[in-house]
Amino acid sequence: MKAKAKAPANIAFIKYWGKKDQKLRIPMNSSISMNLSAVFTITSVEFDRRLKMDKVYLNGKKALGKERERVVDHLDRVREMAGMKLFADMRSVNNFPKGSGIASSASGFAALTLAAVRAANLKLSTRQLSILARMGSGSACRSIPDGFVEWKTAKTSNASFARSLFPPDYWDICDLIVIVTRKKKKVSSTKGHAVAESSPFYKTRIRGMKEKVEAIKKALRNKDFNSLGQIIEEDAINMHAVMMTSSPPLYYWTGATMEIIQSVIRWREEGFQSYFTIDAGPNVHIICRGRDVDHLKHLLLKIHGVRDIIINRPAKGARLISSRK
Ligand code: DP6
Questions:
Q1: pLDDT digits over 288-304, tens only?
Q2: Which atom of ligand 1 is nearest to the CA of 109?
Q3: CA separation for the pair 170, 234 (Å, rounded)
Q4: Fewest CB atoms within 10 Å of the CB: 3, 25, 56, 225?
């Protein structure tokens, strides 16, 4: 029983930061995202009766400690659902740096979920896959369905899953990931979520969330690029304000991050429309219209500290690459 799956990373337009239930990963607020075409994880899982324990390889290296534990916990969820006890050989490869705020846990747990479920011969709906992926890493549930996605918060685990709002070809907008460092972040998202509530601004951000989610869905429906961008930027800054004022405070930005933020604002003043967002790391995502990619890339390459640019279009969600009995 072996299966291989591919899943994209995703960029949140409205961010998930803070949980109602840390263990089940039920988010405090609904979030909205876009799957990314150029950053993904490919994972294979084989359940094998000859194995005496799970084998976990991430990017060609044997995973140890917490990293291994998180994968084994997820395999346990699948084993429990399938009512079987076999150990697995799991191999996962990202085509981008892991742990630097490019949603490696999102693509990683989405790909692992699909591969493990198929290898265990389970047949789950997109909704069930999304719920299961969520338990591995919250943002991973958004990498299961296609294109532009909404993940709803809910009272119970079974009601908190992601669904597609629009397919990838709905709108030609792009996300340029501007890499300023490939180093692993010091504080994981999971730890960050756990301290979010200690910020005096946490409740204020959550309070305005329902309206914000409705407003961004409207901007998507109307293909209103400037409204979409303004909401994306505002929520990213609100989330980082929460991060920087939680205890302990989390400062993910570097000088280069700030330089890029200020450049995007200046270009807008000069008449060129693009908008930034930032996850739990220093790298910046810039959302632009498809036709503006070359111009934006040209502008970005002039900024000191920019090491690389990854161009993403809206993408499909997790897909099975192969499976055999
Ligand atoms: C800043 O999904 O990585 O990227 O559920 O603990 O695995 P866990 O957290 P994770 O958090 C992602 C946080 C974010 C915002 C977002 O993608 O919505």
A1: 999 999 999 999 999 99
A2: 7
A3: 24
A4: 225
